[in-house]
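thread: overnight batch results

M.L. [08:02]
morning all. the overnight job finished for the chain we discussed friday. pasting input first so we're all looking at the same thing
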Amino acid sequence: MTIFKSQQEVDSFLTEVGDLVIDGDVQFSCDVKIQGTIEVWNINGQEIMAKSITAKDITAFSIDCETIDAQDVIAFRIGCELVLRANDIKAGNIITSALFARNVVVDTLLADEIVAHEIVYDAVVVGFQSFKCRSIVGQRKNAVHLCLDGDVEVL
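M.L. [08:03]
and the structure it wrote out:
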């Protein structure tokens, strides 16, 4: 596992185009900002900001990027500008343009497009353009899920 303790250490591993590519696991013991792509096996960290992230597993407090492609994502807050693809997602809050996932456990989910197998949420799930899933369960008595421009389709 490669452990980064400062942004300077991260910067020393960046390619000419600003990508971080490591054939193995990575732990960030600092906040990270990368203009390019992160391609590693597994990520553990606090604040991660990148153009795109490709990893098997991501565990972080906060993730901000255009695209996330991972098997598992565990984070308190995920802000993904374009697409969030993962098999399993556990998060406090997710804000993204498109969400494609197998299982989602979340407090709040806001997305233009939602495609998921199972969604378990605490309070609110809002799809703006489309919302398709196999099952959706709100944990609170007054939990709300809706699609602004269409119907919630439970397949």
